[in-house]
Amino acid sequence: MLFLTFPSVISEPVLPKKKVTRGKLLFSALFIFFLVMAIYQITVISLYRSDLLKTNKPFSGKSWVNPYEKGNWANHSEKVSLHIHSDEVSYTPERHTIEEIDSVYQQNGFSLISFSDYDRVTKSKLYSFLPGYEWGQNVKKRHALSVGSEIQVPDYFPVYASRENIAWTFEQMRKNGGYVVIAHPKLHSSFSKEDLEQIPHYQGIEVLTPYGDDSKILDHLLSKGRNVHCMASDDLHYFSEETIRSFSEPFWKDVLQKIMFVRGKEGESLLRYISTGNNRNQPDLVKADLNDGAFFCVKKFFQGAGDPGLPDIRIIGKDKIKVSSNERYMEVRWIGDGGKIKKIDPDTSLSEYELEAEDTYIRLEITSLTGKILSNAIYRTNE
Question: 3-class DSSP state for residue 204?
Fold first, then answer.
């Protein structure tokens, strides 16, 4: 008899276990991270939106608004700096302390300052200040200042933001009491002309800045009836080498500054600022003047130069604007629609302009021996 034996259990061959490599784990983690980021971005882009301006119409009306009508600049004016960065942010320890910044600006005749650290309100310790911060942690360097508000609006759009998203952000800043300024628009061309035309809720734009002086964008916007104010700022990151040497800095900060190549430069500090009228140096008064456009933008030609004397601007009768000053200017330039130069008066302390029927706004660019002065617009209105 033939006996056949069979195994009681038929077992499958044992396969070697697959090893999960670090590369695969890293890929999976990155995939999950980017997926979450994509979902997040799509969500906030869809939710946080405000309407854009659909039309832009030139100023019109029989009356003229002169933001300088009530102020007094000819005898004395107040210097104000609104864009200053300190070492209070955790990732900028190499910058200057509040005490160092306060001291330098006070010694140089500034009546009021506003720190604009990223996404935090930094408070001055020596004299009155306007609260504020700089918004923008995004890749495209779209930044804006919120001056006069202690409530920060986060940057929900680190990778991409539509114009509607920026409009929503600026609207929230305004609701929180901020005076909203487009910061350094020429840096990386962060805002296009179309962006600036269509996005509402901002009130000022930096046209005198270390990243490029350009007042032409003002005329582009004013010609479309956008009463946007000029802004001049140091956008202070570091003082000049001479000033830094006067500080009692710790050794580690001195080394860090040298490693980051911020030492040995002349710097752009104390050159660009705005000026409000005589005794308009308290935070509430400066905030009111910002909203009204009752200030001048100033750029000095070199550090150590005297402050340019500011003009007194008055509307005489119905159709004449008169500019007078205690300083004799090298040039007074009257600029109208589209940036057209309407009149130039050289070597004078007194200049007048006859308003024409075609004028919708007029602004001034004045050159003195020590600096340049920009006015905000005098414009038509039906109100």
Answer: strand
Burial profile 217-242: b = 16 or more Cβ within 10 angstroms, e = fewer: bbbebbbbbbbbbbbbbbbbbbbbee
Written as six digits, the tokens of 151 are 């409530």
Residue 73 DSSP class: -
What is residue 6's predicted lDDT score, i.e. its pLDDT? 47
Helices (H) and strands (E) in the chain, counts: 8, 16
Write the CATH number of the domain with boundaries 77-305: 3.20.20.140
Whole-model pTM: value is: 0.90
Q: What is the DSSP string of 117-182?
A: -BTS----SSS-B--EEEE--STT---EEEES--PPPP---SS---HHHHHHHHHHHHHTTPEEEE
pLDDT at 15: 57
339, with CB counted inside 10 A (0-12, 13-18, 19+), is middle
Specify the residue for token string 């910061």.
Answer: 183
What integer pLDDT is reported at residue 3 of this predicted model?
A: 47
Retrieve residue 168's tokens.
């929503």
> In order along the chain (383 residues), what is the average pLDDT of each group of 10 residues?
49 60 81 81 89 92 95 88 94 93 94 93 85 88 93 90 95 98 89 94 96 92 97 94 92 93 82 96 96 97 92 94 96 97 98 97 98 98 88
Point out which residues pair with 143 in neighbouring strands.
none
Structure tokens at 343: 């009149």
Classify burial at 20, counting beta carbons within 10 Å of its beta carbon; exposed 0-12, middle 13-18, buried 19 or more. Answer: exposed
Extents of the domains making up the chain: 77-305
Pairing of strands 378-381, 361-367: antiparallel
Under 8 Å between Cβ of 307 and 109: yes
| C-alpha distance across the termini of the chain, in Å | 120
CB 290 within 8 A of CB 281: no
